[in-house]
């Protein structure tokens, strides 16, 4: 049975897709014996940082609706390279409302025995059936924040809805982080009533636009602090999954995994 983890953005452009895929890449590269699946559980494809088309939830919608998923065939369609797999999300905007929480739960239930780790990118829209289904089913949820008042205040406004849905976050990741910003980890923790142990950060890279253009994660560029922060979060995931952690820090340029 796999260990599952969901990543959810408090607002748009917090970098949820980048964080999720980067964690998957660094684990897959360091733990070749593990099969790792990244799933986009929201209203977009979620394949911005890969250079090839993979299978998508939209492509298997009928199988989800009729509970006739062929796990082995789906695995073959999702394989990106070696031990890393990716299942894209929904490409057609007009079809987003046709996906419901039970479809996400069925998909995850069907795939759990085929992978050692399943990481889901649930976007930032809590009014999305796939996202809600994944967050409810998985339970091991990370919330992605950023050092912006609009994002922090939106989380505060939406939190009562998370509570009503029974969705809680065990950890929070402040993305695109700079030490000079007054919205530091101490301030965010105090404002949101979070213990500092539940807060992590990912340093700003400076290569964000290039990564989008190149369809690669930020691990591909000379961003040592970003890579180190991603490794720390990856180890946090591995520890919770009771899997040996990555015990080295990359000093040289990341060799693209994809």
What descriptors fit this protein?
16% strand; 258 residues; 8 strands; eight-stranded mixed beta sheet; alpha/beta
What does this structure look like?
With 258 residues, the chain is an alpha/beta fold. The protein has nine helices and eight strands. The chain has helices at 16-30, 61-65, 71-78, 101-111, 129-138, 149-165, 185-191, 208-214, 224-240; strands spanning 3-9, 36-40, 79-81, 84-87, 117-121, 141-146, 171-177, 199-203. It has an eight-stranded mixed beta sheet, with helices on both faces. Helix 1 packs across helix 9 and helix 4 crosses helix 5. The mean pLDDT is 92.
Task: Set out the fold topology.
Blueprint: E1 3-9, H1 16-30, E2 36-40, H2 61-65, H3 71-78, E3 79-81, E4 84-87, H4 101-111, E5 117-121, H5 129-138, E6 141-146, H6 149-165, E7 171-177, H7 185-191, E8 199-203, H8 208-214, H9 224-240
Parallel strand pairs: 1-5, 1-6, 2-4, 2-5, 6-7, 7-8
Antiparallel strand pairs: 3-4
Q: Tell me the structural class.
A: alpha/beta
- Count of helical stretches: 9
Unreliable stretches (pLDDT < 50, length at least 5) are none
Spatial ordering of strands, largest sheet: 3-4-2-5-1-6-7-8
User: What string, H for helix and E for strand, traces the elements in order?
Assistant: EHEHHEEHEHEHEHEHH
- Percent of residues in helices: 25-40%
Q: Per the principal axes of the C-alpha atoms, what is the gross shape?
A: globular
So what's the oligomer here?
single chain
What is the distance, rounded to the nearest whole angstrom, between the alpha carbons of the first and last residues? 26 Å
Largest sheet: 8 strands, mixed
């Amino acid at each position: 049975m796999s260990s599952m983890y969901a990543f959810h953005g408090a607002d748009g452009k917090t970098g949820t897709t980048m964080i999720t895929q980067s964690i998957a890449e660094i684990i897959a590269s360091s733990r070749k014996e593990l099969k790792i699946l990244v799933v986009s559980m929201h209203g977009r494809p979620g394949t911005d940082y890969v250079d090839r088309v993979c299978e998508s939830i939209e492509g298997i919608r009928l199988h989800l609706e009729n509970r006739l998923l062929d796990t082995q065939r789906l695995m073959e369609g999702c394989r990106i390279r070696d031990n890393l797999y990716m299942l894209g999300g929904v490409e057609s905007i007009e079809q987003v409302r046709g996906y419901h929480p039970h479809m996400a739960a069925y998909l995850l239930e069907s795939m759990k025995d085929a992978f050692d780790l399943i990481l889901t990118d649930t976007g930032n829209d809590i009014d999305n059936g796939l996202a809600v289904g994944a967050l409810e089913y998985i339970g091991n949820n990370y919330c992605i924040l950023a050092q912006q008042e609009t994002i922090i205040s939106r989380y505060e406004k939406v939190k009562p809805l998370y509570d009503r849905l029974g969705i809680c976050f065990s950890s929070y990741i402040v993305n695109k982080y700079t030490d000079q910003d007054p919205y530091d980890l101490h301030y965010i923790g105090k404002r949101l009533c979070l213990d500092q142990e539940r807060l992590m950060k990912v340093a700003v890279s400076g290569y964000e636009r290039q990564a989008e253009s190149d369809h690669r994660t930020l691990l591909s560029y000379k961003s040592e602090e970003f890579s180190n922060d991603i490794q720390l979060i990856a180890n946090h995931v591995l520890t919770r999954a009771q899997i040996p952690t990555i015990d080295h820090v990359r000093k040289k340029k990341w060799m693209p995994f994809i």
